[in-house]
Design goal:
alpha/beta; 9-stranded mixed β-sheet; acyltransferase activity, transferring groups other than amino-acyl groups (chains A, B); about 40% helix; Thiolase-like (chains A, B); two-stranded antiparallel ribbon; Peroxisomal Thiolase, Chain A, domain 1; homodimer
Chain lengths: ~375, ~375
């Protein structure tokens, strides 16, 4: 059974004066409109969200959204995989259609975070980490700092290469009206911003964000009846790496990225050379390098060269994060993986506006925790 | 693709001196052993859990469990559907195998609740309810009380019929060493226990519980290679009802039960007359009646008669809640739906010990919120 995506939407990402309920509802309604289907058509509804209970004291948001969107009696469920909840939602939506359980599945991801102080939000996010590491005070940014230092020293990569990721993704974000930040930054600004986790500085990190994004999935057969603008999910895979980060044999190899992309390539019958555009999970700049290597686009220790020579820029050989990435678009946990899917879908159906590149095959890689769990999705333009 | 269940386990339910991590791990390990498969065989791991973040400040428990069980690089994901998270996990596990995404899927459900005060636990559970109703102070027990009063008056049912549900399920629980309570109660005790939500009394409610349960799913083809003791998931369906309970046309009709059981019967090619045993979600005694009517075993307003004449007792025409039900087994939110699956699986493969009844076809109905979302699963014994 071929699974198609026939609609996409996302709210403005940023500091939003709206609760999770409103954000999900807005993205969901816009996706119904974009897909050209009615609420009655929807058979399954998945909500990707990590922590509405912790952030807002409201649970059961998937039932609430089913009610608000008027899709009853559609099945509704919340999918959590921490920061890769959105990618996990894509996997579930795919499975729901591929298994025959649903002919029309709406996926809405979202998170409302900015009403908390940075400390409170960081505490909620840090609850992802393994208890044996968390008790020593390790956080995700500190893992990123240690990994970046190791990578730069081991592979003799210049510090500037990380800043180039930030500068590139901010530049891409200028053309995305839904991005949290729509402003370019200079190399100087990135390199002189305050140190957060040495050697990483403020501009190596994504912000804390509110927002929601949605995708509509159906069978290819049904997609053809509804529209001629659709994409196919031709490959998808998911994998878990050790939850204890210090147990990994090589801190520069993200096992979940390697394994999930291998599954996705095999299913699609493609390889890294076939990709035209990709969204990678640049929660920290260093992760863009590790994922480029994990998905096989670059050999280990060489992805920094792609940043230096412009190969991953919008006009390069393989544009990465045309949406602006998590870096400038923002990172509302449960929404991010769905928003990656929205961007590659729009690129494949020619709906990316000023961000448009030529693309028939696209990949999205969504990372949970510090690579604890990873979903890789490959979409292709319909013939 | 026929999906089979080849193993099951559950921890002791009750007040446990163990955190969610330990409970999940214990059930998961025992299920691997029961199924006779190694950690390397597992391709997908689903964890049904509503609120480990709220109860323990620990999130990412699916990645943690994947690590603890040694099933890496298996895909791992948390499934939340409030009190029906366990049933939702069965649906996801089924989809993962039926879609071809996984050949061997482990589902582990669990919740750790009793370390919180009753007030704290109730606050977390009440966050399920619709914000428009919650702000008026409505809780799930108060919905149950109002529904029970309406049912008894409208259908001229005796108050004793509700007490009979409690007495029956406590009696069944005596034979379940994993149940929180293994003691019979008398009609007098049930009818004279303190009023909680008039007309419902203490013994009309399930307790707050810690515990975990697990099931192993694979293809029928693979099941045959591994064992001759397996069951088939022949029907499954899920549905959402209005989240605002007071909007329902008839408070005695649980729309989610009706719709999800309709889907499950259609898929299995069966009807209510074909059932040999069933587990229903008796979070409140009144819910056993509403589900018996929702799944078509009794006409509207008549299920109370089955309680009065003993038809739902272990030696009756259709034994209901041979496990002891949520009433005496306990209700660790994310575990409950999985534990229902464990009971019907054990009944079908002849592993229910002193609780064993003759059964080739069994149904489980898992209810989230006050019927906000419902999963109905039908299993059949292998030929």
């Amino acid at each position: 059974m071929e699974v198609a995506v026939i609609g996409a939407s996302m709210t403005k990402f940023g500091q939003r004066d709206a609760w999770i309920r409103e954000l999900l509802s807005q993205a969901g309604e816009e996706c119904l409109t974009d897909a050209g289907v009615t609420p009655d058509d929807v058979e399954h509804l998945y909500v990707s969200n990590m922590a509405s209970g912790e952030f807002e004291g409201q649970t059961g948001i998937m039932n609430l959204l089913a009610h608000d969107l008027g899709v009853l009696p559609a099945y509704s469920e919340r999918v959590d995989q921490t920061s890769s909840s959105g990618g996990a939602g894509i996997y579930e939506a795919w499975q729901s259609v591929a298994s025959g359980a649903s002919d029309m599945t709406l996926l809405v991801g979202g998170e409302k975070m900015t009403h908390k102080t940075t400390g409170q939000a960081t505490d909620i996010i840090a609850s992802i980490t393994h208890p044996d590491e968390y008790k020593h005070g390790v956080t995700l940014p500190s893992f990123a700092g240690m990994t970046a230092r190791h990578y730069l020293e081991r592979f003799d990569a210049p510090r500037e290469s990380l800043a180039r990721v930030a500068v590139k993704n901010h530049k891409n974000g200028v053309d995305n009206p839904k991005a949290q930040f729509q402003k370019e930054i200079t190399m100087e600004k990135a390199l002189e911003s305050p140190i957060i986790a040495d050697p990483l500085r403020l501009y190596d990190f994504c912000p804390i964000t509110d927002g929601s994004a949605a995708l509509m999935f159906t069978t290819e057969e049904r997609a053809k009846e509804i529209t001629d603008e659709y994409a196919l999910v031709s490959g998808i895979g998911g994998a878990t790496d050790t939850h204890v980060v210090h147990e990994r044999d090589d801190p520069t190899i993200m096992g979940g990225v390697v394994e999930s992309s291998k599954q996705a390539y095999e299913m699609a019958g493609l390889g890294p050379d076939d990709l035209d555009v990709a969204e990678l999970h640049d929660m920290f700049t260093i992760l863009e390098f590790l994922q480029l290597e994990g998905i096989g686009v670059a050999d280990q220790g060489t992805a920094w060269e792609l940043a230096m020579d412009g190969a991953t820029a919008k006009d390069g050989d393989l544009p990465i994060n045309t949406s602006g990435g998590l870096k400038s678009k923002g990172h509302p946990l449960g929404a991010s993986g769905v928003a990656q899917g929205v961007e590659i879908y729009e690129q494949l159906v020619g709906g990316a506006g000023p961000r448009q590149v030529e693309a028939d095959t696209a990949l999205a890689c969504n990372v949970g925790g510090f690579g604890n769990c990873v979903i890789t999705t490959i979409m292709e333009a319909a013939e």
